[in-house]
What we know:
Blueprint: H1 3-13, E1 19-20, H2 24-28, H3 38-43, E2 49-53, H4 59-67, E3 72-77, H5 80-93, E4 98-102, H6 108-111, E5 117-123, H7 141-150, E6 151-161, H8 164-177, E7 180-185, H9 196-199, H10 204-211, E8 217-222
Parallel strand pairs: 1-4, 2-3, 2-5, 3-4, 5-6
Antiparallel strand pairs: 6-8, 7-8
Helix pairs in contact: 1-5
Amino acid sequence: MGSKNKLRRFKENETFAxxxxxxxxxxxxxxxxxxxxxxxxxxxxxxxxxxxxxxxKGEYSVALAKKYPNKNFIGIDIKGARFWRGAKxxxxxxxxxxxxxxxxxxxxxxxxxxxxxxxxxxxxPDPQIKxxxxxxxxxxxxxxxxxxxxxxxxxxxxLKTDSEFMHGYTLGLLHGAGHEVLYANHNxxxxxxxxxxxxSIQTFYESQYLEQNKPITYIRFKIK
Length: 224
């Protein structure tokens, strides 16, 4: 993407009422006013709050928001020029129950209060296969502790990935730490009984993976 295009998207993001871009100092300094108040101040209701971490272009967040109008969705990514697409679609189509937050996933507990979130989706994260990149895997123990901080006691996490490595790594970690695996599937489009929200929504890259006959894996779990 050209730098002019990026700048245009950054500028346009600033005009969208559904995009929030706190500074790191705001978050770490505990002055981010939406922490603990997302439903009240942004969505103006008490519906369940669902996050998509590393939302990319925001297409999954937007599709979930359309499918579940009685839930509130927030797509989170550090790359605003990417989720610009999802934010713009939501504005143009008048989808009121989806918003976008530009921040690092590492700062998530500064953006949401304890027990504020009902559900988390992690869709096609970078598996960070090299051992020295373990700390960046979005399902490592440190990240799970962050998620636990903001999730309600019965809150769940969904991991959807084309990486068999990420799937196996996460399952092993979950079982080893005594977390509760609610559902696991090595190939959601080939096995019967896959949850509908997993198979009925596809990202741009996911459709490409399917054309290449890459299996899409899925895990739904609770953090103990």
